[in-house]
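A quick word before the example. In earlier lectures we treated sequence and structure as two separate objects. From today on, think of them as two lines of the same record. Here is CBM6 domain-containing protein written that way.
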Amino acid sequence: MAAVYEAEAAAYGGGARDVACSGCSGGTAAGYIGGDDGGTVTFSGIESDVDALTTVRVKYLSGDAAPRYANAVVNGGAPQRLAFVQATGDPSSSVLLAQLKQGSDNTIVIQGLGDGSWGPDVDRLMVPVS
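And the structure line, produced from the sequence above:
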């Protein structure tokens, strides 16, 4: 079982904004991640029952034949580079290893690499619950 955090309910920064996504759970995804405007999507209030290293699934779309990349920052830690292979229609998953703290004071930011390249369109995060 997993808790779901929708990207369209998260906070956008830089040039990030809603994009239509018929295959996404809410019909919308967070688009324009990265790029020259440094688009970001920040998921706050992520809950964990315990302090633990856990696997978070990042559901996304990417129409590019070549992989896109983005950094994920968990609770202000070091960026983790994630790869997002081509995925059209239904969202695919990339995996993030996240060190979560007990409680609901966890934050995950998906951002560009800082080089002007584009990340994927992010649909949602799926965080395991015990």
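Notice the following. The first strand starts at residue 2 and ends at 6. We will return to this example when we discuss secondary structure assignment.
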